[in-house]
Every structure is written in C-alpha cells, then in structure tokens.
Write a structure and sequence with these properties.
Blueprint (H helix, E strand, L loop, with lengths): L3 E11 L8 E11 L3 E6 L5 H8 L9 E9 L2 E2 L5 H7 L4 E4 L3 H4 L6 H12 L4 H14 L5 H5 L8 H13 L5 E5 L7 H18 L2 E5 L3 H7 L2 E6 L2 E7 H6 L4 H8 L19 E10 L3 E2 L3 E2 L3 E11 L4 E6 L5 H8 L7 E6 L2 E2 L5 H8 L2 E4 L3 H4 L6 H11 L4 H14 L16 H13 L5 E5 L7 H18 L2 E5 L3 H7 L2 E6 L2 E7 H6 L4 H8 L17
Parallel strand pairs: 3-8, 3-9, 6-7, 7-8, 15-20, 15-21, 18-19, 19-20
Antiparallel strand pairs: 1-2, 1-4, 4-5, 9-10, 11-14, 11-16, 12-13, 16-17, 21-22
Helix pairs in contact: 4-5, 5-7, 15-16, 15-17, 16-17
Length: 545
C-alpha cells in the first residue's frame, strides 16, 4: 500500500521445539497507514507482542525467529536493513512503548539520564536543550513534579509513572511509526484519557501511524480507527472499529467482547457481620528527600496521609485513584513491606506493626500480596513450580505436598501442567500475572492484598480470574483488599470502594452508591474519564460459541 507506514505480509514466527504450538504468528497480513491507529487485540499468548517485536527486529532469535513473510516500513524491507541502520531507525523514525516498564528501564540510571540518552543519540541538541526537552515530555505525559521524577530511579516512582516515562521516551522525537504494547495498562483512567489524547494528537499533527496493542476494549472504543483480532497467532477478523465493536462476525471476537466488565455495579450484598479481619487506623507515610551531587535532590513526597479503613471476612474493598495517589503504598503498609511513619494495622486483632519477628512470620501466612509488576516480583532463576511452592515450604509444609498444591493452583489460574517446569521469562505478561496470583493463593491466606492483579490480563482471562477471586472469597470467607485503576473491574468485584487522591481517602462507600451518585468532585472526574464509557458492549445469543 503506497500510503502505508507499516505493511506486514505473510508474517510467520516460529516458536522453539516443545512449545504449545509451532508458530506464534502464522500468515499475518496487516497494514498501518499514515495518520491511522490500528488496534491489535487478542488473548494473552496470541502473538501480539511478538508481532510488534518482529517489526522492531527484537525477536529473541534463534529460539524465536521470523521464518516467512515481509515487513516494510515506509516501503523499505526491514529484513534488508543493516543492524547499524536499524538502530538509527529505532527511537527516531520508529519507536516502541513496551508492556513492562520496570523490565525495559535501566534500574541503575535515573529517568532523566535515560530520556537524555535517546535525545543525545538522535539529535544535536545541547545538554541544556535536552534537559528542557525531557522536562517538557514528562509534563506532556502528566507526571507530577517532573523535576523530581527526572532525578529519580525507576524503582522510586510508581508503576503508572514508570509507564508514562516509557511513553515520554517513545514520543520524544515524534516518530513516523509508534508501536504501543499495552501502553495504558498500568495507568489510571484520567491518565489513560490524557495519554490516548496525546497519542491521537501525535497521529493528527505528525501523520504518525500507530500500532496499538491492547486487551482493553474500552481503549479500543476510545481510540481505534481499525481493529485486528488475533487468536493463537491467526488473524481471525479485522475491520473498522465501529464494525468490530458493534457488529463482530467471528465467534472469538464475540467472546472477547462479551467478557468486558460492565460499568453497572453488581447488586449489593448483605453487609458482613462480625469484627473486621483487617483494620488500618491513621496510616501516614512520607518518603524523605533523596539525591546527591550528580542526580540532584528529590523533594519529600507525602504518599499516605491519615488513611483508615476496615475490612471484614468475605468482603472486597477496592482502593481506586490516579497513579501516585498512594494506593500501592497503602497496600505495602498493611502487609508491612514498608514501614509506616505512624498509625496501626491489625490482622485478626493482632498488631502487625508492633509484632516481633516470629509473630510477624505467622501473620504473613494470613495476609498475602499479589504484586502489580509480575516480572519484578518473580525470581527469574526459579522454575514456576518452586516459585509457587516456596512460601508453604518456608512455613512448614512438606516439599512434595507444596508442589502438588502448586500444580493444582496452576490449573486454577488456567495454565498448563507444562508451565510448572518453565522460568518466568518464558511466559507472556498476562501469564506471569497468573503465576503471581497462584503464588499468593498457595498460603491459603485469610486476606489477599491485590495490587492491580488483573491489569496485564486480556478480558477473557481477566473475567476468569475475577470469578476465581470472587469464588475463593465466598467459599473461604476470604477478605480482599483490591487496588485497581480499572473502574470497570472495581464495579464488578468490589463491595465497597475507597477513592484516594494525593494520599488521602476523599470518599468511601458501597460500590453501587459511589458509581451512581458520586459526591466528591474527584470521584466524578474519575468516572467521567473511563475510556469507552459511551460504548455499550452488544449482547449475543451465541456467546457460548
């Protein structure tokens, strides 16, 4: 196609021997025109990210390699481009926003250094001009206190802020092609809307083509011009966004759309009886100013201010809010992964913060956490079976029994038995998140603190995991503290919602009440920013197909 920025024809990508199928991608034909946004959707493991990696020539060859087909960028066959010229193209004419920012960012370099590297390699700007450009990009993706973030290391900022740094780096030079691999997965709804607007502005002002990989059909409804649907490496359907979202023809597409969580909250349950299993009172946390001669000084950040809540058995409390609002910090304070400056946390009447080492070990078997970034929280040197069995073994379960239970949990989270002997890097992002959930469930806890546990999952697996969590909660009287930026998920799973802004809870109440009659202006802003809010997923008579 003459106006195609990207033209993929007959792409075939082979997987290593012993994989669940021979080809990750088989015969993919896809184009992205200048000034067009094409959304590539499909379940985790369908080959979406590998297709993106093939375009950037970042496939982990020879284990995973392109065996057939052509990929043309602005008419140029990328297979004929030298590695030196390909490096020049990356970051300048074409760029990629990766799915897991903690894996893609260098943990030993500050945010400012990493953005500066892109500008230094591809422009002739002076050091002062590059710094000003970097600050402008951080402001454009709405990172609070961009000067402080510029001097921070990746681990010192939230998951959503790390994703925004990746987006700023990718868009810094206004490339002709942007490949966005789940770029808004870790972002709250208001930032999602801002980033989608930013990408749309780039498309309109620069004529850039956007290949946008996502599992979020709300995002598809908000931004897509065309949609392509992948199933196990095969392109099953493509067309205009309106046709795919409202009149899908393939049964697989219909199944995906049917799994999109509704914005209508589930009917309210009877309020739980008895004392709370988890109580937080007056929690405060300030991260002190840090820095040095070379990196500059970061300002002190008040992450949590006077936060209190109670959670009963069999109940789910959702904590929602923008990135940087303090949600994740609260989850780490109640599990004592971080120490609060003041306040109290009680688990089943026992004070977590005052517990000695032996008592704390016992309490931690009662409260388990599912982390936001699965790749950062899973030991890359351990096989999956040992990762899941490790906790029970430490707490006295025999290794054989712990591993048998680990295999059962793999089945519960929809992973094959073969997954037990593989390492975390051999899985897709969504599959790694399921491993993290299985690891938390292995301890059979009374409380699960879940920090964005389904953010990396496609809609169908997301629906399965949410059903699993709800079933475990109801069967085992499990208490669930659920941190999420996805208000659709909160509407379906949470009995109550606490809304956080700048470290404080500004509104709390039953989910149905918060969604239908929000009182605080900030809550109203969150609800009005949900991507695809005006799109109502159609219903199908043949969903079971």
């Amino acid at each position: 196609m003459s106006d195609a920025v990207l033209d993929i024809s007959g792409l075939r990508i082979a997987l290593p021997p012993g994989s669940d199928r021979a080809y990750a991608i088989e015969g993919l034909d896809l184009s992205v025109r200048a000034g067009e946004i094409v959304c590539l959707v499909g379940e985790s493991g369908s080959g979406k990210s590998l297709a993106a990696s093939a375009v950037m020539r970042l496939l982990p060859a020879p284990q995973v390699r392109m065996t057939d087909g052509t990929i043309r960028f602005e008419g140029q066959d990328l297979s004929a481009v030298s590695e030196r010229d390909m490096r020049r193209l990356r970051g300048d004419r074409m760029s990629m926003i990766f799915q897991e920012p903690m894996s893609a960012l260098n943990p030993q370099k500050t945010v400012g250094w990493q953005i500066d590297e892109v500008l230094k390699l591809h422009t002739s700007k002076s050091r002062r001009e590059r710094r000003a450009h970097a600050l402008d990009m951080l402001e454009s993706v709405h990172i609070p206190e961009p000067t402080s973030a510029l001097n921070a290391y990746p681990h010192q900022i939230s998951g959503g802020q790390r994703q925004r740094v990746m987006i700023a780096m990718a868009l810094a030079l206004s490339p002709r092609l942007v490949i966005a691999d789940e770029p808004t997965t870790a972002l709250d709804v208001t930032t999602q809307l801002q980033i989608l607007k930013l990408i749309r502005e780039l498309q309109e002002s620069q004529g850039s083509g956007i290949l946008f990989i996502t599992h979020d059909f709300g995002v598809v409804a908000e931004i897509a011009d065309r949609v392509a649907v992948l199933r196990q490496g095969e392109l099953v359907e493509q067309g205009t966004a309106s046709d795919i979202l409202n009149r899908p023809q393939h049964a697989y597409t219909r199944t995906l759309i049917a799994a999109v969580p509704a914005l209508q909250p589930a009917p309210a349950k009877t309020a739980p009886q008895g004392p709370p299993i988890l109580s937080a009172r007056g929690l405060n946390k300030t991260f002190a100013a840090r820095g040095g001669f070379l990196t500059g000084r970061r300002q002190a950040v008040v992450a949590v201010r006077d936060v209190s809540f109670a959670l009963c058995r069999g109940e789910t409390l959702g904590i929602v809010g923008e990135s940087g609002s303090g949600k994740t910090t609260v989850s780490r304070l109640v599990t004592r992964l971080q120490k609060s400056d003041s306040g109290a946390v009680e688990v089943d009447g026992k004070d977590m913060l005052a517990a000695d080492r032996r008592t704390l070990k016992a309490l931690r078997s009662d409260i388990q956490m599912v982390f936001q970034d699965p790749m950062a929280s899973l030991n890359p040197r351990k096989r999956v079976l040992d990762l899941i069995a490790q906790g029970p073994i430490v707490h006295g379960t025999s290794p054989d029994a712990a591993r048998d239970r680990a295999r059962e949990l793999l089945s519960l989270v929809e992973l094959t038995p073969a997954a037990a002997d593989r390492f975390p890097h051999e899985f897709s992002g969504g599959q790694r998140q399921r491993i993290g959930i299985a690891r938390a469930l292995a301890m059979e806890p009374k409380i699960i603190v879940a920090d964005e546990p389904v953010s990396a999952l496609d809609v169908s697996v997301q629906a399965q995991v949410l059903r699993l969590l709800a079933d475990l909660r109801d069967r085992l009287s499990l208490a669930l503290l659920f941190v999420t930026h996805d208000l659709r998920v909160a509407a379906q799973l949470c009995d109550r919602v606490a809304v956080m802004e700048k470290g404080e809870i500004v509104e709390t109440g039953p989910t149905a009440e918060i969604f239908t009659a929000p009182r605080h202006a900030y809550t109203q802003k969150l609800l009005s920013s949900i991507p695809g809010r005006d799109w109502t997923p159609p219903t199908f008579r043949d969903d079971a197909a």
